[in-house]
Amino acid sequence: MSHGPRPSQLCLLSDLPRKQVGDKMRFLGCVESYSPMSGILTLEHRLPDETHPALALVDVKLVLESMRSDQTRKGEWVNVIGYITEIPPLADDGGLSHGGPRIHAQAVLLWSAGPVDIQRYELSVKALDQTNGVNNANSS
């Protein structure tokens, strides 16, 4: 039996609101804002059929030493591995007025996505979800 850290689950940012506090997730998001005072990086990934996309409010204090300034620039795409957390009191969303769900996460790893084909990424993650759903249904 392994006692190391559990693996992360890859998902779309829009699926984060369905996850549980404590789940370790990997997701891609586009920087909407960054608050240096709170250490919160606000990420979005708007799918074509969404009018109010989910926002991920990611606490990056644990990874500040390894972050570069371009990773907090509006419009940059970043990968995050982190844990879903409780919504903190007086949560700072970077001043964004937004109608979609908000999810809070603690980043343990963050890196730039570089040039990414967003549509291909979305299709790949959705295909992986469908494959895992079939595998999970067969293993029950």
What report would you give on this structure?
23% of the residues are buried. The chain is globular and about 40 Å long. The chain has one domain: Nucleic acid-binding proteins (OB fold (Dihydrolipoamide Acetyltransferase, E2P)), CATH 2.40.50. Helices cover 16% and strands 31% of the residues. A hairpin with a 4-residue loop joins strand 2 and strand 3. It has a five-stranded mixed β-barrel. The C terminus is likely disordered. It has 140 residues and is an alpha/beta fold. The chain is built from one helix and six strands, in the order ββββββα.
List keywords for this structure.
140 residues; alpha/beta; OB fold (Dihydrolipoamide Acetyltransferase, E2P); disordered C terminus; single-stranded telomeric DNA binding; NA-bd_OB-fold; CST complex subunit Ten1
